[in-house]
Amino acid sequence: MAFNFFHRNKHIILYGLCLALLLFLLKWLELRFVIIDHAFQIYIGAIALLFTALGIWLALKLARPKIQTVVVEKEVIVPHNGHAFTVNEKELARLGISSRELEVLQLMAEGLSNQEIAARLFVSLSTVKTHTSRLFEKMDVKRRTQAVEMAKRLSIIP
């Protein structure tokens, strides 16, 4: 049946294909003529599009926040009784922390730098660094924040 249809209408189909081919050729030649005749404007337009895309990309890169906010939830240790804070002497003895190291630890918990701790305790900066490194060894921590957190958890500092 399909063969019959093509056989009966072969002239119409052939003329239709020839017209479509001629129309395609005409449009292609017209496009080439437009491109050759208006090449400068087309290059300017292409460069404008390129720089517009580059500007949008750069704006998106620069508008992105550089710092990412991360929320860390931690357990806060609150004493159960409403009494004044008392130092856990057992933990102090177990860790072997001296009274001067305890003072340095308390000042670290206040957020003071080594220089500020040295000025407050009337000792040299190297002495504070020594006390700090010995505290880190005894408490088996690597950073000041870890030392303060562990001391609060063990009830060594308020």
UniProtKB/TrEMBL annotation:
GO BP: any one term = regulation of DNA-templated transcription
**Record's SUPFAM superfamilies?**
C-terminal effector domain of the bipartite response regulators (SSF46894)
Which Pfam families does this entry report, sorted A to Z?
A: GerE (PF00196)
Membrane-crossing residues? 12-29, 41-60
Mind telling me which CDD domains this protein's record contains? LuxR_C_like (cd06170)
**What keyword terms does UniProt attach to this protein?**
DNA-binding, Membrane, Transcription, Transcription regulation, Transmembrane, Transmembrane helix
- Is the keyword Lipid biosynthesis assigned to this protein? no
Residue ranges annotated for the HTH luxR-type domain, each copy included: 88-155
Keyword Transmembrane helix part of the UniProt annotation: yes
Q: Which InterPro entries match?
A: Sig_transdc_resp-reg_C-effctor, Tscrpt_reg_LuxR_C, WH-like_DNA-bd_sf
Which PROSITE patterns does UniProt cross-reference here? HTH_LUXR_1, HTH_LUXR_2
Q: Name one GO molecular function term.
A: DNA binding
Matching PANTHER family, A to Z? DNA-BINDING TRANSCRIPTIONAL ACTIVATOR DEVR_DOSR
Report the protein name in the record: DNA-binding response regulator
Protein species of origin: Chitinophaga lutea
Lineage of origin: Bacteria, Pseudomonadati, Bacteroidota, Chitinophagia, Chitinophagales
